[in-house]
Amino acid sequence: MVLMKMKFPFEKRVKLAQGLWLLSWMATLAGAFTFTLGCFLKTELRRRAEVMDNTEIHAVPNTLMIVGLASLGINYFAGRMCQDALDAGRFPRWKTFMQPYWGVSLLFTLLMLMAVIMSYAMKGNLESSLKIGLKNGIRFYKDTDTPGRCFQKQTIDRLQMEFRCCGNTDFKDWFEVQWISNRYLDFSSKEVKDRVKSNVDGRYLFDGVPFSCCNPSSPRPCIQDRLTNNSAHYSYEHQTEELNIYIRGCREALVNYYMGLMNTIGAGVLSVFLLQSSVLVSLRYLQTTMEALAGQENTEIETEGYLLEKGVKETIMEYVTPVLVFLQLNQVGSEDTEA
Amino acid sequence: MALLKLQFPLQRRVRLAQGLWLLSWLAVLAGAFTFSLGVYLKTELLRRAEVMDNTEIHVVPNILMLVGLVTMGINLFAGRVCQDSLDSARFPPWKPFLLPWYGLAWMVCVWLLSAVVLSYALQGHLEESLKVGLRNGIRFYRDTDVPGRCFQKETIDRLQMELRCCGNTNYRDWFEVQWISNRYLDFTSKEVKDRVRSNVDGRYLMDGVPFSCCNPGSPRPCLQNHLTDNTAHYNYEHQSEELNLYNRGCRQALVDYYMGLMNTIGPGILSVISLQMSVLVSLRYLQTSLDGVDPENPEADSEGYILAKGVKETMMDVKNIMFKLLQFGQVEAGDEAEAGADGEKAATSS
Fold first, then answer.
1. Among residues 160-199 of chain A, which lie with CB inside 8 Å of chain B?
2. Between the ranges A51-65, A306-320, B330-344, where is the mean pLDDT highest?
3. For testing contact with chain A, the best of B234, B235, B244, B245 (most A CBs within 10 A)
4. Is B319 within the bounds of a domain?
5. Same domain for B198 and B73
6. Residue in A145, A185, A220 closest to B234 by CB
7. Which of A47, A319, B6, B222 has the most beta carbons within 10 angstroms of its beta carbon?
8. CB contact under 8 A, B216 and A158
9. What is the dihedral of CA B301, B304, B310, B315, to 10 degrees?
10. Contact B244, B218 (CB under 8 A)
11. Which residues cross the membrane (chain B) (predicted)?
């Protein structure tokens, strides 16, 4: 029972071939567009690579780049095939090529859809990667004299200024680490000695934040230290103060930024996916109508085109049965050897 | 004796017309390019309009935009002329327009050149304008509650962070103004009262700078207060400290930025000028060579030149024409006076 059978008189076949040729060129451009989207996303992820702990999220742009390149090839062949389609003599030479072609093109089209789904599914992954990366960045903020970590301070400062955020979850993360290096602390002063003695690890902790947390929109010059002490500053109440420093945490800011990027890219890739699917469907119809012409003398008769020769279930069974037979054979073989 | 005479056989005339058509379309694109450069420069100047005192520097992008549009127009006209040029029936109607066209094209080149020259000559004006604008910005930094000035603080902060600069000439400009509003000063504290009394105007002056002067590239957390006091901070010497704050003044930073922009735009404009000049010269040759064609033998060779006589003689000719026009006016006035005197004589004698 054939799936979605359609009749194709000669005129319609010609129109199908012409339309498909145009579509395949558009789909080639769309494939190049997908590739550039993947490159763009990868560049943006690499810019902030220093505050990410792992590179699992890079699977999304990598998939997009691979799919983009593959669709260039797929659509190039689709264009060549429909150039030959209207000549009944030249079309049969593509016959042996078709089976692997369908396999490859279906695989990559599905991969395109997978990339879009992944970009939403991996949000949690991205967030935990940023959580660890930012935690390390804040911990190593003071190590401007340690090779390998000497740029953490500048990275975190520029990140906070650019994304208008402070700390990991919020600004209180800065209260829990010593972000002033011991080189700049006067250990002969009473205040420093008190603070260092007040906790187990001997760290200089205090309720202050770096200057990069300051919000320029605040009407008041920035208050960076003794943030929880209302009496330390004139006319200051830390519970109601909202504009002084950035309230948002950098993890949330970065996740929002990347999710926004991926939403835009996802919409583009979905439309490319629809275009690619229409190319494949049209090519399938063209292939089946041309195959029905094989061996006919009059190439201008009406033929039928279909998507699948048998129904969906039967086609799947057709492909799955050999695999099952192979597995069962193996099982039977191993039982024999045991006996 | 004609200036730069060239022989033009038929083939060469045809090639000249075709080449000129192509050149004129290139020149139209160049005009569009000039216009967009003018728009870009104007946008960049408007972005920092709040720290500029006057808009004299805007004459450069205004000229570029205007001349870009004019260039597009005249080159479209040149393209039409040379499309019709090889048809001896359609070319003559265009002839009277060509002399004013040459004048206009020449003016376009002069204006473009003046725009380039102005962009360098007005550097002093730009610097003055920025000096006054930044001084006001720093003075009104604290007035976040005064309508009309409430965004000065944010403007100056973002400017200093973006351009990596501090103050007008350098960071010491912040020591000379009170940049903390009285609303946030505790006038009951001794320190505040001392500082306010220490100067004539009763301003709270301190050797500190806003947070936007801080340099993220410093290995040390930013020091903003007591900058001239070495004992106020551990392991600190203000004479040798270079990385803590931005060393550059914002005036210098902005002037460098805009001069860099104009240096990039300059060569582009110079190439547009040369393109326009080549269109002008080619059209002149085309016109003169077509004029020299014998109507009975249209496929013969003809001569093309830039000026019919030499430069000096052409200038003499132009001068004579001008004199004639002036003298014509004078002689007429003289005749009337004579005629009036004659009439009186006749009246008295009769």
1. 161, 179-181, 183-186, 189
2. A51-65
3. B234
4. no
5. no
6. A185
7. B222
8. yes
9. 140
10. yes
11. 20-41, 62-81, 101-122
